[in-house]
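Sequence design from tokenized structure. All designs in this work follow the same two-part layout: the structure record, then the generated sequence. An example of the structure record is given first.
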């Protein structure tokens, strides 16, 4: 999944279909599930393209589109085992007592930081750095940052 216009349209279509009770297959079902995890975005999706921009939600500035895409990317990494170390980090956080969604957000935060730092520098995503950072990620570290 990319941060592009096509993905924006797809997310808005899933949001509209979800509102109508539509059933989805595969990736669209994952997008709908992520939307279920974030009911705070429900009104924003109704804004159409305006919902693709940063919004103030609960006192924080959040881009629901970017947040959803990041969720889909990391969710897919965990579900497919494409990068085994991602699932290992996620499971480790859960085993340490972190709630599922918070564990997913902790992994997403690492991925997002690397993705956008590499993108700004015009370099390819550094999978080894991702693996290294996730290896040191722990529930205690996440709690101290809150």
């Amino acid at each position: 999944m990319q941060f592009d216009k096509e993905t924006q349209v797809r997310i808005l279509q899933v949001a509209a279909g979800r509102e109508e009770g539509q059933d989805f297959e595969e990736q669209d079902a994952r997008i709908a599930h992520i939307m279920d995890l974030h009911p705070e975005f429900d009104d924003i999706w109704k804004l159409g393209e305006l919902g693709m921009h940063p919004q103030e939600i609960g006192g924080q500035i959040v881009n629901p589109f970017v947040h959803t895409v990041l969720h889909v990317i990391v969710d897919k990494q965990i579900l497919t085992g494409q990068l085994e170390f991602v699932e290992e980090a996620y499971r480790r956080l859960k085993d340490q007592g972190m709630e599922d969604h918070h564990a997913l957000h902790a992994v997403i935060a690492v991925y997002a930081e690397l993705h956008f730092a590499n993108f700004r520098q015009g370099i390819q995503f550094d999978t080894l750095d991702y693996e290294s950072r996730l290896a040191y990620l722990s529930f205690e570290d996440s709690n101290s940052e809150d």
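The mean pLDDT is 91. We note this feature because it recurs in several other targets discussed in the main text.
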